[in-house]
Structure formats: C-alpha cells, structure tokens
Amino acid sequence: MEEFEDDSGTxxxxxxxxxxxxxxxxxxxxxxxxxxxxxxxxxxxxxADPGNVxxxxxxxxxxxxxxxxxxxxxxxxxxxxxNKGNEVVNLLRDDLGLxxxxxxxxxxxxxxxxxxxxxxxxxxxxxxxxxxxxPEPVRVQAVVSVKREGEDRPTPILxxxxxxxxxxxxxxxxxxxxxxKGALVHGSVxxxxxxxxQEYALAxxxxxxxxPDG
Length: 214
Fold this sequence. Notes:
alpha+beta, Lipoxygenase-1, 3-stranded antiparallel sheet, 8 strands, globular
C-alpha cells in the first residue's frame, strides 16, 4: 500500500512539472507578440514605396462614375483598363465608381518600373456616368510623382484638376518629358490633346492584321 502511494506521488509530481514546463514554454513563445507595435514599426521604417513614375487619379467619392486613367510611357503602348500593363507600366487599380466597391474612395493608380527618358502622356476618360443622356460634369484630379534613385519616397512634380463633361469624354491632362534620372525637362509640360484610346485601338487593329491565320 505504501509503495502504491509513493508511485502515485511521483506520478503527480511528474505531471505537475510537465504542465509547468509547458506553461513556461508557451509564455516564452508568446513574448515576441506582447508588443507587436514596436516590431511592425521597425520592419516598415526602411521600406520604400514601389514604383518610380507614379500617376494617381481621384474623383469625388459620392460620384457613381467610372473614370479611367490612361498612361503612355515613351515608345510604349498606352496602358489603361483593357491593357493593364507592359514591360514598363502597370495599372494597379481600376476603379468602377460605386459598383462593387467596398472602399470610400474613387481612385486609380499607375506605377512604372524604372524611369524611361522621353515624353510621357497622361489621359483621363469618362467611361461611365450616372446619366448618359443628361450627364453631370465630374471634376477629377491627376497627380504625377517621381521617385528618383536614392530616394525613399516619391516627389510630386505635376498636379492638375480637369472636368469631364460627357460620356466617353477623353482629355489629355499632361504631356511631359523626363530625363533618365527622373528630372522634369524644362518647358516640356503641355496638354496638347493626343487620344491614347485611339492609339491603343489602332495598335490592336494592326496586330490583328498581321497575326498569322490558325
């Protein structure tokens, strides 16, 4: 009887020690998560914004209008909603207005990978308005920023508001030239109209004409 009681005490002590060891191990594993704010802050301090040439488009959040951003890098095919990217530029957000949108902002953005010297073109188009027969003009704002080599954050270089007055109205907001290092070429900024939508459509037509059968 005494031997059984001794064994029971030993088993109880062993179980208690194992449970205590497991608790200590859990506490040690959770220590890094007790103050996650400082760790997250340290991790993000050195992260630089992606992209070099950044074009942003905004319009009033209450407007259920689908406004499209088009951007053409030098010697490249225009990028917009039917062509969301090429080797230099990508459309990262295609906003449809309030349709299937859980955010409270109407916003589109284009990034480039690297800086290509030459003329850049930024266009906007009213692809869909609330009332196509009696459209209410919508004011949009376009911002161009450049992140140069050695910089962690992009620097805005151009900003402008324009008004789209009717359905499928396309405007050239900016035409400007950059050097290979991202400097804005003096005297290059203008808004002489050049339809990027038409340029893209013509390029598609040419592509279909030269495509081999089968």
